[in-house]
């Protein structure tokens, strides 16, 4: 139970990649984390994945702190959902705040689009200067946002974890567990070795 006592959020919207929400939700809960599904619509909204799997949100992003720092980590799934999520300023603000605070942010498939749209205090995409990966279709978006795109199953850079497709779910979740567990074991006032 490496993540006992942690709260991990998963952003969600319609047409999410089914495995990229359900697999981390189950796997991170197995490690003892409290996993909450966060949507842009009222709590209890039923989102349906690309292949029809339903997930109900636990909370609306508008009901969270604006910086999202009540979370120990955040997961950004792919599918078509990131195209909706990147239009939500509150979600983008939480992504930027968590990256700035060096809290683990994990994005897979089209999820890294959020790293292009989320901006730091100076208006610079949080992807700028980061080594990362994604589904190949958004490679150019990440490069244009200033990222260094690589074709690897999982990439970790400054607390941001990225992966390519559902085929990478196992190393993706292992990287999330490792990153969150290392922040838990870091001494108070430390940045968790980042």
Quick recap:
The protein has helices spanning 18-30, 81-85, 89-100, 113-117, 139-144, 169-185, and strands spanning 7-12, 34-39, 46-48, 54-56, 59-60, 73-76, 105-108, 131-132, 148-149, 154-157, 160-163. By secondary structure, the chain is α/β, with parallel strands linked by helices. The longest helix has 17 residues, at 169-185.
Care to describe what's here?
The protein has 194 residues and is an alpha/beta fold. The chain has one domain: Class I glutamine amidotransferase (GATase) domain (Rossmann fold). It is 30% helix and 21% strand. The protein has 6 helices and 11 strands. The strands form 3 sheets. Strands 5-2-1-6-7-11-10 form a 7-stranded mixed β-sheet, sandwiched between helices. Strands 3-4 form a two-stranded antiparallel ribbon. Strands 8-9 form a two-stranded parallel ribbon. Helix 1 crosses helix 6. The protein is globular.
SSE inventory with pairings:
Blueprint: E1 7-12, H1 18-30, E2 34-39, E3 46-48, E4 54-56, E5 59-60, E6 73-76, H2 81-85, H3 89-100, E7 105-108, H4 113-117, E8 131-132, H5 139-144, E9 148-149, E10 154-157, E11 160-163, H6 169-185
Parallel strand pairs: 1-2, 1-6, 2-5, 6-7, 7-11, 8-9
Antiparallel strand pairs: 3-4, 10-11
Descriptive keywords:
alpha/beta, 194 residues, 6 helices, two-stranded antiparallel sheet, Rossmann fold, 7-stranded mixed beta sheet, disordered C terminus
Name given to the CATH homologous superfamily: Class I glutamine amidotransferase (GATase) domain
Specify the CATH architecture.
Answer: 3-Layer(aba) Sandwich
Global structural class: alpha/beta
Order of helices and strands: EHEEEEEHHEHEHEEEH
The gross shape turns out to be globular
Number of domains: 1
The average pLDDT score comes to 95
Low-confidence sequence ranges: 190-194
- The CATH class is identified as Alpha Beta
The number of helical segments is 6
**Adjacency order of strands in the biggest sheet:** 5-2-1-6-7-11-10
Give the helix level as a range of percent: 25-40%
Q: According to CATH, what is the topology?
A: Rossmann fold
